Amino acid sequence: MSLRVGVVVAVDIGAARMKVAYADADGVVQLVRFERELWLPSGVQVEPDGSLLTGAAAMRRARQRPEGYIADPMGRLTADTVEAGGVVVQTADLVAALLRVALAGAVHAAGSPVGVVRVVTAGAWGPRRRGALRTALQRAGAADAELVAAPVAVGWHLLAGGADLPEQAIVTVCDLGAGFTASVLARTGDGFEALAGVEASDGGGDAMDAAVAAWLSPPTSPDGVVSAAAAAEAVVSARLAKEALSAAPTVLVPGASGQVVFGVPQLRQAGAAVLDRAVAAVVQAIEAADVGREHLGLLVCVGGGARSPVVADAFADAVGVRPVTVPQPDAAAVLGAVQQPVPIEDGVPVPSGRDAAGAVLAAAGSVALFGQFMSGTQRYGPLRSIQEGWLLANWSGLCLAAVLAVVATAAGASWLHMARYAMLPETPPDERLGRRLYGVALAASAVVGLGVCVGYAVIAVGSFEVPAGPLLRWSVLAATPVAAAVVVAGLLVIARPLLVQRSWQAWFRFPVTVVVLAGVGGYLIGYDVTDSPHVLRLFDWWLQQYITEPRQPIGPVGRLGAACLGVAVALLIARRGWIRVLTAVPLALLTATVLAWRSTGLITAVFGAVVAGWWLWRILAAVGGAALQVPAPSAADRPPAAAAGAAAGFGAAWAPPPPAKPQSGAGTAERGW
């Protein structure tokens, strides 16, 4: 089932920083790294000849020519043109320059072409700014990009993080950035509906920085006038001190009369008016949405100021719901824009040949390996005797047959789940019911796979009349880690909604290439150990014409099979193509070299452990995104001794920042509370 072509890329151009996220071929969401940072300054430098510079090059040039620096192009979309250093440039061209850098960075990071582009916008944007952004996207070569409102993107980020948001659930999103925006959303069957939104430009991070700077009283010149450099330095110091209070109860900052101890109580006092305006915007948004406070669900804080210690108590007192945060609140919108599902054609998942091939090939490989085990095993000792017999067997073949049996049943559960939509086209799809049914089927498939392993052992016990212990150990015990991981995956599917833009079936689709390599590799090793089947003798003779080595128990055919298993392991542990190549060659050589008569079972057991690790990695990658966190009690409630120690430790390392130029410094620090 293919839901998209290429990677999904999301761009969030804020007032100070631009963040870019993408979902790679496996559906794993990551932020794009620009040099050493996970963000890029959102300013653009306009040169005298009309050329545009972005990123670090723009910041360096802005120090020499600050009059040509445009700090916030997205904030100027209401104007068609803007003048910078005597040069008039269209605002759409400024935004297009940033978008081109964002898309190029995503392509370089993902190593794949861009399939879907999404751009985060403010929830209150009207047709004028959206139309100007459409023009910029067209000039950047992404005319078909989707525009996603920031609060809606945060809603998808919550769902991908495991938040239980049933239909009609109410979510209040508080965006604490340069300004402040409160939005109220309702969960619908296929997404989110914005019920109300209130902006308070004087209730955000910029206003808080100014309030803190005024409270610190920047030094004045002898004539009583505050210089521009001193005012800019005071704002930067206030911002740094405010952000530092997210991790320490108190800090030392430069004030009018030297170093000043600045803590959470001082922050609450300095920004009381700003915080009141933000709280009023939240209350107004809830009232405008016409939602009773008893029906409020989550109240989520995102943006650069979500971790501020003065936010949680103020919102909880005003609304009655304590806010929650996500691990990366400043990137919640851009991550959520990527995690929003890509619609499936016709509204239902369609089974593809890859899904069927995975189940059929794994089942065929498992049966073939078990058949080779049975035909190549020799029993020693009299039948129906008091004395137990013993087997000279290819235990690696039985082990690999058991592992592939569990893989086959898991793949079959995925294919059958999607095939039911094709068999019952008149049945409308229900995402929650379908997801839970698939989770149950996936967990049950692991039990069925273990049942097949038990059947293998029972057949061998009845055929050879030997104790069941060794046979169960190499079949059921070898496949148990894989089966346990599949059961955990099924429980995860039951508990969580649709993951990013991929379906759960696609997320847990086991690589077909690995199944083929493992089956072929195990079969070749089994031939060298048991001389079965005889049809491979011609291939063995042909291979020996090119590979000459002293006569050993393991010949060229078995070593070729071990190399296939090494390549299969490389495909499971590495995701990028060039890393797979670099990993596959040494692993193939290593397994082919160390393969011996007594190590065949160990090598296949290691492969089974890697298969279980692949399932566990998919599980951890799914749950490691955006777990909700309730803010801890504010730092003001900590013991005085701990607060004093933190203040001393941070103050010893504090150094006043250098004077900043107002023209070029706007994009150098994250604007948030």
UniProtKB/TrEMBL annotation:
Stretches for region Disordered: 653-673
Keywords tagged on the record: ATP-binding, Chaperone, Membrane, Nucleotide-binding, Transmembrane, Transmembrane helix
Q: Which domain of life is it from?
A: Bacteria
Quote any Pfam family the record assigns: HSP70
The record lists the membrane-crossing segments as 395-416, 437-459, 471-494, 506-526, 557-574, 603-628
* UniProt GO MF annotations: ATP binding; ATP-dependent protein folding chaperone
Claim: Membrane is one of the keywords in the record: yes
Please give the InterPro entries that the UniProt record associates with this protein: ATPase_NBD, Hsp_70_fam
The keyword ATP-binding belongs to this UniProt entry's keyword annotation = yes
UniProt-recorded name of the protein: Hsp70 family protein
